[in-house]
Amino acid sequence: MDAPDTTTVKPSLPRSILRSMRPRQWVKNILLLSGLYFPDTGRGGPLLFNPGEVGRALAGFGLFCMLAGSIYLLNDAIDAPKDRLHPKKRFRPVAAGEIDAGLAKIFAAVIGLVALALSFKLSLAFGLCATAYLGMEVAYCLALKDVFLIDTMIISMGFIIRAVSGIIVLRTTEHNVELTPWFVICVMFLSLLLAFCKRRGELESNRKRPESHRKVLQFYTGPLLDVGIGVCAAATILAYAIYAAENDRPWRMIATLPFVIYGVFRYLHLVYAGGEGEAPEEVFLKDTSLLGCVVLWGLALVLVFYPT
Fold this sequence. Notes:
- The protein is mostly helical.
- Helices cover 64% and strands 0% of the residues.
C-alpha cells in the first residue's frame, strides 16, 4: 500500500496576495456608502435610490478597499518577523512564507498607486482624500503605530476620512451632498471607542506572550483604556443624539437612536464579557444581534427620508 501523501500544497500567489489584503477588514469601508443617506441640498432628498450615484459610491468603496489592502500588505511585510511569534498572526501569508516580504512591498506599492490614480478619476477632492488616507496609513505602518495615543488617533482618523470621502465622492456638478459636523464628531468618538477596545483586547490576549506585543502596548493600562472606552461610548451616543435632534426631520431621526444605544452597549458586552475587542470586524460579522441591529438601523434611516 502506498504511503499517504503528506505534502502540503502551497497556495497560489494571487490567493495569498488577496488573503494578505484582508477582505474581512474591508467592512470598515462601508462608511463610504454613508453619503447615500445624506440629503442632496439641490434636490432635497438623499441619493440612495439614484443608480448613478450608488455606482459612484460603490466605486469609492472599492477604491478604498484597494487602498486598505495595499496598507495591510505593507504592514505584513514590515511586521513579518514579529508576526511569526504571534499565535494567530503567524498564519498570515507573509509571516508563513507564502509571499516574500520584498514582493509584498512591491504589490502594496502597485495596488496603492493604481487605486490612487483611479481615485483622482472620480474627482479631485476624492483623490485628495484618498491621498491623505494612504499617506497617513503608510506613516502609521512605518513609525506612528509605536507612538502612544497617536496610534489610536490615527485609527480614528482613518474612519473619519472614510466617512468624509463617502460624502465627497457624491459631490458633483449635479449634486451637493450635505456634510454635518455632528456626524463627523459621532464617527470620531465611535472609531476611538473601537480603537480603545482593540487595544484592551490586545492587552488581555497578549499578556502571556510579551515577545509578540505591540511596542506601544507597554504604555497602555487596563484602567486608562476603561476610562477611554467609557468616555467615548457616552460621547458617541450623545453626539448621535445631537445629530439626530438637529436633522431636518428630528423626530424621525431620534427614533433611530435606540438602535445606536443598543449597538454600543451590545459591543461593550462582547468586549468585557466575551473578550472580543481585539478584532472589531470579526465581532461585527460573527455576532448576529449586533449585525441585525446595524441592518435594522440602516432600514430605519431609509424611513427617515422616505416617504417624503
